[in-house]
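Deviations from the work plan: none for this task. Representative record:
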Amino acid sequence: MTDSTKARKTAETSPTPAGDGRQQWQEGPLAQSLARFPRRRETFQTLSGKPIADIYTPHDIADSDFERDIGYPGQYPFTRGVHATMYRGRLWTIRQVSGFGTAEDTNARYKYLLAHGETGLSTDFDLPTLLGRDSDHPFARAEVGKVGVAVDTLRDMEILLDGIPLEHISSSMTVTAPAAVLIAMYEAVAGQQSVTGAQVMGTAQNDILKEYTAQNEYIFPPRPAVGLVVDTMEYCAKTMPRFNPVSVSGYHIREAGATAAQELAFTLAAGFTYAEEAVKRGIDIDFVAPRISFFFDIHIDFFEEIAKLRAARRMWARMMREKLGASDPRSWTLRTHCQTAGVSLTAQQIENNIVRTTIEAMAGVLGGTQSMHTNSMDEAYQIPSEKAIKIAVRTQQILAAESGIADVVDPLAGSYYVEALTNEVEEEAWDIIRKIDDVGGMIQAVEIGFVQQLIADSSYTFQKQVETGERGIIGVNEYVEEETGELAPDLFFEVDPEVTARQIARLSEVRATRDNRAVKSALSGVQSAAEKGKNTMPAIAEAVKAYASVGEICDVLREVFGEYRAPAIY
Amino acid sequence: MTKRLRVVVAKPGMDGHDRGAKIIARSLRDAGMEIIYTGIFQTSESIVETVLQEDADVLGISILSGAHQHYAEEIGHLLRENKLDDVLFLLGGTVPKEDVEDLKGHGVAEVFGPGTHTDDIVRFIYDWAAAREKAV
């Protein structure tokens, strides 16, 4: 039984310890109130199923030590935030995802968003790119430019980042399986801009473990894929020390149906795995750990998400310092991007999604995120229209300028409920991490489907709660209206139907005009490095500069590493 | 006793968003059907091959990448080509209302979008099976 559960049970059942009027209150005002109006439901639970008590008092956090567990922002264990001043010093980055069509299309959206006040860039790529296929691959034909921007060669990256100064604007790339290739492209474009390696800012998601359990954008089997991640960590620490080569992600895991504690556990376990694999390779933990960054979901249960983020920072600090012996405080620091939960949005009565996103964005700010993407109201239907994404940007700007929540640091610290919930989420997450350790670590857990089954079970539980009405969702199972299912004309968005043809034409042109002998030679360099177990990044960087394509480079790696087939778990 | 309905749940193309497909597979299984879940990254050919091999009554495909028209057309065509017109062809995913008619033109019997109650899918399939029994 957890300390806080014990404390609560004690308070509810045993004689009142001196000074705690809880029992009096339960037998008096609470009992009287319940006699007139019973509770709205038999039990109250957070979105993740944690019971919520009738009241929280100092008793619920009696075992918390302020200096040890809560403390100060910018100081171990960072429960209260990663910087001493937090948003009083610098606001979180407004970093909205852009990605559709060809590079020009997405570059135009970057500029639209920057003009409206976003302060960092984030890019989604199309499925062929994400899965290491060129736009003319037979399997790719129907998917070019649909869910993100098509990038085949360095030429596309040059156009994508045209007019974006990489030493002033940090840009995040939501790409994982072929991330090594895209990172090399990013580095090459920075070089073309005459931005030095020391100046380049940016992030690549590059968290392969969550692909096998949640997002399903994998190519190679887990072990060699993790090796590629470590390659990028080692390479970037040397060549682009301000670049975050990994953004260990909970978002997709949560969207796949995991609970908050599961999201936390699987994410931290994955981050720990990359760090540990680097150490096994002989890399100094403090060389790479400072640039491990994170990406969490912000779901609709306001307090639970705040608690989750606070617990995350405290747990990571402990893992890095105590389990891996990191001594640089930057290694202990969990810096995170957050995105409001796509899965919480409805296709029904879409204006309500603005409200949901706002609640979630508030939780992100009160939880201490470093950057944030707010979803648009029309995302159940399409990539956001300009109007909808602008509202999403304004949401963050209003929170920053008008609500006051950015003017105080970790204001919910000391709340009996929030601190108790932070402890509970943390404790459950440690339990799950222990189970992962018991099966042999995160890579093993992924290979045997342990993680996948837990996520599938959680998602099924949630679905049943919605279908029985136990969990209300306005517009879906409460206050349902007849709707046309069509979007208003001012929310118009369309990907140019000629996208596939345009992209294939560009790819053909690049292939025809590049030095194909240099490409061939560079590709065999990649193959050789992969076969010999050497860091593949220098060879990939050379291939990229020769305008080898994502598909060509990944095909070489497929030859060496093989392709992953997932077990059909549901 | 009537034999259990056999349902293939498949994800064609490159889309890996399988939360919905998995939930539906499980719901249909809990409702008494036999499920063959193909997993992701299936080609139209491999899906129809599975329907053939498994002697399936129902095929449900799930697409959230926007490629639904392409796959509905391709799979619809292959089902007819393989004399599998009598298989109930269903589609789930993020499909704009204006695309539904086109999809039905390719042989999709019904489209289930976001917010669908799994009971509705179960009922649709059992109603169809009952009508099929009567027609024999």
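The first strand of chain A starts at residue 93 and ends at 94.
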